[in-house]
Amino acid sequence: MKLTLRMIQKGVDNETVAELIELTQEDIEHHFKAKVFFLMNIKQK
Question: What is the superkingdom listed in this entry's lineage (predicted)?
């Protein structure tokens, strides 16, 4: 739950948070890292 609250505070959209709530901790970490990597690549372009 703390991770979900931090994600909301950091501006992760509600749909993504809703999807992540149903995932395991390992899935959440993988998905979050992938999303952060994706967002970092967009900002660099």
Answer: Bacteria
CB 35 within 8 A of CB 12: yes
User: In degrees, to the nearest 5, what angle opens at C-alpha 34 toward C-alphas 31 and 28?
Assistant: 15
Name the helix (H) or strand (E) containing 21.
helix 14-21
Pair 26, 15: CB distance under 8 Å: no
Query: Which pTM does this prediction carry?
Result: 0.39
Give the tens place of pLDDT for each residue, 1-45.
576 667 666 777 767 777 777 766 777 778 788 888 888 888 765
